[in-house]
Design goal:
This protein is mainly α. The chain contains ten helices and two strands. Helix content is 66%, strand content 1%. It starts with a helix and ends with a helix.
């Protein structure tokens, strides 16, 4: 049950990002004026950008902007508009600080400082650490099942949810990978991949919650549970990618699916006698406290550490505990199934 507290928080935040495109910062007339001048002149103060060098017909003077940089820097895809927005934001924030005003959001985001081309470097680092933690958890789970626990005569694990957790591991790693990419550079493609990966993880997690909590071992029963949920999740992802990026609708879907699986896991946690259920409660408390960081949002400290970045950090130990529970569950189920066979 517990892991879904912070999984839902992760997905819900992904669903909520940029729901409101207009923010206090980008509504500021001085900021808008700065951007307008920058896109015409290619400069903000004394800083000028090669991306903004255009001829009278609108083409770049020195060729495509992405060919004007070293190969190792082209991945970040900063263009004229992006650089103008970033440096105008920095100037406005400096002016606001001089008169005692606090930071405000620009285009739905706090004013972060770039680091080596990364848009939100701390969130990128913690997303990468979450990815590494999921890889470590999945790999140790795989080794436990195939090399440490006894196997059936056909060399398959006794644990009847092994395949489901393997898929969960890959979906989790995929979701955190695209989270890291999205925080590196927020463009249309990375946004859609981040959203799609998060929704896929959330939808599959609901399927897994139902199958594990109700101990569904029959393939027909599993298909009856999975088929409609997979169809809905796939349709929703295709809708977001190919028809309309509807942030409000996506948020509603995430919340409903998240609450549904929380209820399923809560009921199971209340009736199970699992020997490692205490680990679930540790993550429940930790996940609940971590979610406070999302509720009480605050601007980035020194331009790097904001509430969301710290929330990413808090999920790292929770991931370790969750995979520890999964491995305990594998040992517990394997022992019980072996007894039945004997």
């Amino acid at each position: 049950m517990a892991i879904y507290h912070w999984i839902i928080g992760f997905v819900a935040f992904s669903c909520l990002v940029r729901v409101y495109e207009a923010s206090a910062g980008d509504s500021d007339p001085l900021y808008r004026t700065c951007i307008g001048q920058c896109e015409k002149t290619g400069c903000v103060g004394e800083r000028c950008f090669p991306h903004c060098k255009f001829s009278s017909d609108g083409t770049s003077v020195d060729g495509p902007w992405y060919m004007q940089e070293p190969l190792y820097l082209r991945w970040k895809q900063w263009d004229c508009q992006s650089d103008c927005r970033y440096h105008c934001m920095l100037d406005r924030e400096k002016e606001r600080a001089e008169v005692g005003q606090g930071p405000v959001k620009y285009h739905g985001k706090w004013p972060f400082l770039r680091l080596y081309g990364f848009q939100e470097p701390v969130s990128v680092a913690f997303s990468a650490l979450n990815l590494a933690m999921h890889f470590h958890g999945w790999l140790s789970f795989f080794i436990l099942l195939n090399y440490k626990l006894p196997l059936k005569p056909d060399k398959k694990p006794f644990y009847d949810y092994a395949g489901l957790w393997n898929i969960y591991g890959f979906l989790s790693m995929n979701s955190w990978f695209w989270s890291a990419v999205f925080h590196s550079r927020d463009v249309d493609l990375t946004e859609k991949l981040d959203y799609s990966s998060a929704v896929a993880l959330l939808g599959y997690s609901l399927i897994l919650a139902i199958i594990r909590s109700f101990s569904l071992r029959d393939e027909a029963a599993r298909v009856m549970v999975a088929a409609p949920l997979l169809a809905f999740t796939t349709t929703h992802i295709l809708y977001l990618k190919n028809y309309k990026m509807d942030y409000g609708w996506n948020m509603q879907v995430c919340v409903v699916v998240g609450i549904a699986q929380l209820l399923v896991w809560s009921i199971w946690a209340g009736v199970t006698r699992h020997p490692s259920r205490w680990k679930l409660w540790v993550v429940v408390v930790g996940g609940g406290l971590a979610m406070l960081l999302e509720i009480f949002d605050f601007p980035p400290y020194n331009g790097f550490f904001d509430a969301h970045a710290l929330w990413h950090a808090s999920t790292i130990p929770l991931t370790y505990i969750w995979w520890s529970f999964i491995k305990d569950d594998a040992e517990y189920r394997t022992s019980n199934l072996q007894k039945k066979v004997k």
